[in-house]
Amino acid sequence: MTIATAEHIINAGFDEHRAEQFAERMVDMLNAGCTALMISIGHRTGLFDTLAAMAPATSEEIASRAGLNERYVREWLGAMTVSDIIRHTPETATYQLPSEHAISLSRTSPADNIAVFAQYIPLLGAVEDQIVHCFRHGGGVPYESFHRFHEVMAEDSGQSVVAALDTHILPLVPGLTDRLEQGIRVLDVGCGRGKALNCLAGLYPASRFVGYDFSREAVDYARREASEQGHHNATFQVRDAATLGEGNERGTFDLITTFDAIHDQKDPLAVLRGIRAALADDGVYLAQDIKGSSHHHGDRDHPIGPMLYTVSCMHCMTVSLAQGGEGLGAMWGKERALDYFSKAGFGTVEVNELAHDFQNYWYVCRP
Questions:
Q1: Would you give the end-to-end CA distance of the chain in angstroms?
Q2: Using CA atoms, how far apart are residues 257 and 250, in angstroms rounded to an integer?
Q3: For site-directed labelling of 80, which of 23, 93, 221, 267 has its Cα 20 to 30 A away?
Q4: In terms of Cα–Cα distance, which of 266, 269, 279, 273 is closest to 240?
Q5: Is 130 exposed, middle or buried (0-12, 13-18, 19+ CB in 10 A)?
Q6: What are the chain's domains?
Q7: Per-residue pLDDT of the chain in tens (367 residues, 90 and over written 9)
Q8: How far is CA 214 from CA 170, 219, 226, 252, in A?
Q9: What is the DSSP letter of 45?
Q10: Which Pfam families does the record associate with it (predicted)?
Q11: Phi then psi dihedrals of residue 121, to 5 deg
Q12: How many other C-beta atoms can be found within 10 angstroms of the C-beta atom of residue 257?
């Protein structure tokens, strides 16, 4: 900063106290970002699960129980200690994960494990160079650059979708569980590793379930899991969702679902029109998508707004742009979503929120 620039800022009403507060906030953000990386490591290595089941223990005891290298575990415990996540007793050289913290960080609480989401930080950081290139030259980063994406999304889905399917999500459509018990045709578009669809196939053996995704790795995983679980009523196909509803597929399905899958499509409106065409006249389309307002200022109070915009910029938007697509982004918001549903030909759309889910809207769309 030049002297002239500094003088201009001061003359413009520079507030030194606010500048110091903001600098402190930036330091907090740096610490939080680094802590998120270590939380991801703690989750992936099983250290949080190990600690949740142990009394206070030394680094050697913890490493031995977890089957990990003690030196790395000791340094990780240091990061967790200074982050006030783990309690350290220097007199006994022991460490303990409080039960109040274990609820949010271990697999003992499968519906509330925030450590699952910490994995997005290193996942996105791995493509930072490519994203910077896109900032300068346009284009996008393709799906195949995100090496653990489907793995992390499957674990995410296991908490946010699968755990609530029968108790909270399906009841949004009156009479739907009865129809599923009697036997209907169900399609999940952008099924990923098929966690939700395989869950439904197990719950409702009289219904037939089909999952489409354009990732071969994800579809192969879904097929293996269906076979292992004995779900003969579930099939999975590698398929471009933009071709949905063509030919003899029109009016085929009684229920179509998308779980966090529309906004990162190459052509979201074409996919929605395909869903509408593939839906039976008395069918229902149930869509989960990110809760947003379609306006930046309207998302300032979102509890995880910064995270969602980051994921949008570094994954959802860019994978669409990599296909020459619209690049809609995760934070397209309710207003734009309703406009797209209308343009796709849906006659009525209900917007639902679930008490336990501050991240998503649940849209119930009918012809």
A1: 59
A2: 16
A3: 23
A4: 266
A5: middle
A6: 3-108 (1.10.10.10), 124-366 (3.40.50.150)
A7: 555 555 555 556 788 899 999 999 999 999 999 999 999 999 999 999 999 999 999 999 999 999 999 999 999 999 999 999 999 999 999 999 999 999 999 998 766 899 999 999 999 999 999 999 999 999 999 999 998 888 898 888 888 888 899 999 999 999 999 999 999 999 999 999 999 999 999 999 999 999 999 889 999 999 999 999 999 999 999 998 888 877 678 899 999 999 999 999 999 999 999 999 999 999 999 999 999 999 999 999 999 999 999 999 999 999 999 999 999 999 999 999 999 999 999 999 999 999 888 899 999 999 9
A8: 26, 8, 18, 20
A9: T
A10: Methyltransf_31, WHD_Rv2258c
A11: -65, -55
A12: 27
Task: Return the biggest CA–CA distance within the chain.
Answer: 77
DSSP 330: G
Please tell me whether residue 146 adopts helix, strand or coil conformation: coil
DSSP string, 83-131: TTSSEEETTTTEEE--HHHHHHHSTTSTTS-THHHHTHHHHHHTTHHHH
Round to whole Å and give the CA distance between 48 and 114.
Answer: 12
173: left (phi over 0), alpha (psi -120 to 50) or beta: beta
Residue position matching structure tokens 């307002």: 293
Report whether 96 contacts 84 (CB < 8 A). Answer: no
Report phi then psi at 249, rounded to 5.
-85, -10
Q: Which H/E stretch holds residue 220?
A: helix 216-228
Burial string for 41-74 (b: 16+ CB within 10 Å, else e) reads: bbbbbbbbbbbbebebbebebbbebbebeeeebe
Token pair for residue 65?
A: 């129980």
Predicted structure pTM score: 0.89
